[in-house]
């Protein structure tokens, strides 16, 4: 596998496809460029998903995220683009991407985008005493 930025999102088979379970990945060093000023924008991405048949490979995800470093993008657009690419690569039961952008001009921005596979419903939460 290369160590250069790449849009190729490699996957691997879900080891427990018969079970709903969640995967949470934190990406604390996401950067892209403001499309208006060209200045860098910094965010922490949190990816949460319930896999179906495939899971995203972490090094490939790191190299994918790296491709945004020199790309101008509005927060809303980049969050939805990343989610769309990840959904296309893994076809999960559920996926949520939260992009918490650092302060810029006194304003914090958090964008949350979600995908649900047709017909999938989460199990009722378990309440322990």
Automatic annotation (TrEMBL):
InterPro entries: GTP-CH-I_C/QueF, NADPH_dep_7-cyano-7-deazaG_red, QueF, QueF_type1. GO terms for molecular function: preQ1 synthase activity. The keyword Nucleus does not apply. It comes from Thiocapsa marina 5811. Gene3D superfamilies: 3.30.1130.10. GO terms for cellular component: cytoplasm. Keywords: Cytoplasm, NADP, Oxidoreductase, Queuosine biosynthesis. NCBIfam families: QueF-II. Belongs to the GTP cyclohydrolase I family. QueF type 1 subfamily. It is found in: Cytoplasm. The keyword NADP applies. Catalyzes the NADPH-dependent reduction of 7-cyano-7-deazaguanine (preQ0) to 7-aminomethyl-7-deazaguanine (preQ1). The active site is at residues 34, 41. Pfam families: QueF (PF14489). Substrate binds at residues 56-58, 75-76. GO terms for biological process: tRNA queuosine(34) biosynthetic process. It catalyses: 7-aminomethyl-7-carbaguanine + 2 NADP(+) = 7-cyano-7-carbaguanine + 2 NADPH + 3 H(+). Pathway: tRNA modification; tRNA-queuosine biosynthesis. This is NADPH-dependent 7-cyano-7-deazaguanine reductase. Its EC number is 1.7.1.13. Its main location: cytoplasm.
């Amino acid at each position: 596998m290369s160590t250069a930025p790449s849009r190729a999102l490699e996957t691997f088979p879900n080891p427990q496809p018969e079970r709903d379970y969640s995967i949470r990945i934190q990406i604390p060093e996401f950067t892209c460029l403001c499309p208006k000023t060209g200045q860098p924008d910094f965010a922490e991405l949190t990816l949460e998903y319930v896999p179906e048949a495939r899971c995203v490979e972490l090094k490939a995800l790191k190299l994918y995220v790296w491709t945004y470093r020199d790309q101008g993008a509005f927060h809303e657009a980049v969050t939805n683009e990343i989610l769309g690419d990840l959904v296309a690569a893994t076809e999960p039961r559920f996926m949520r991407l939260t992009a918490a952008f650092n302060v810029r001009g006194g304003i914090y921005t958090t964008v949350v985008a979600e995908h649900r596979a047709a017909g999938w419903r989460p199990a009722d939460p378990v309440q322990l005493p």
